[in-house]
Specification:
Chain lengths: 113, 113
Amino acid sequence: KQEVTQIPAALSVPEGENLVLNCSFTDSAIYNLQWFRQDPGKGLTSLLLIQSSQREQTSGRLNASLDKSSGRSTLYIAASQPGDSATYLCAVDSGGGADGLTFGKGTHLIIQP
Amino acid sequence: KAGVTQTPRYLIKTRGQQVTLSCSPISGHRSVSWYQQTPGQGLQFLFEYFSETQRNKGNFPGRFSGRQFSNSRSEMNVSTLELGDSALYLCASSLVAGGWELFFGEGSRLTVL
């Protein structure tokens, strides 16, 4: 059974810093990995999707990498801003969508102005 | 283009009642998935529908059911509500089934008293 772990559970940094969020998964046989952000009381916003054949994806100040063999993904946020404050969730698709996504518990990020 | 729309956004029920939640996917998307989010368990997969057929179901009791209509809109139903059913229920849509990027709605927050 696939398990997804996100470290750290919470992170608070000053505005302007570059930061890395970590995600690990137990079964490397995945179709894709997706990063989401969730604001309090809201739904999930898709940030980046990495297919199993890809090593990384970039969108603006965000860069996500994937190392399937080691079961790890990182989300790099450059030049953090207070608006980046949210919970970041990593999710793995292990069954081509048939079994849904397996989510980590998230990293609660606070960017101090 | 409009995103995923979920109704109602908030509702309060009492134990033993039943509830129906609705989800309208992004136009052109044919796959709809449902997830339950609680503080203790995080996000858990409920079921996925594609072309009016349930592809798979997560580890939830039979009180949780769903369906999809020919226009891809989906409903989920929870019968004989229990206190533990209090959660944020999130709907996600994707273009087709099987490993594609998911787009989530804002969720329906259910409180069971």
